[in-house]
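Record AraC family transcriptional regulator, 132 aa.
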Amino acid sequence: MSERNSLPICRIQKPSLCIVAQGEKVIMLRDERYQYGVSDYLAVSLDVPITGRATQPSPESPYLAIRLDLEASQIFQIMKETELLPDSTNRYHRGLFVGKMNNALLDAVVRLVGLLETPKDILGVGIADQMQ
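=>
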């Protein structure tokens, strides 16, 4: 395991949708712990100070994820269209929450990642820059 990957990183997390392709991550917002992995997503709707780290990364199985930096309204639109609205058991009063992926969101992410191979096909909205 790389020592660099095991150390927590402190940052201001901007509004985004984070989806893990491999591994698992833990973030802390004050005293609340949020853990998410391959079948989960993290939605952040406003700037929040977090501490986070990948759990158990290794050279054979590194932490791989995609983060889409979006406006809060875009995040909620995506969640509405893919029917990923949080249920009452999620803690989302602090501007972020973890939820379970569904096929609609997974399909959209796979298509977006596929566009990285042909950036000229991404028109106007600047998604290529957001995905880097």
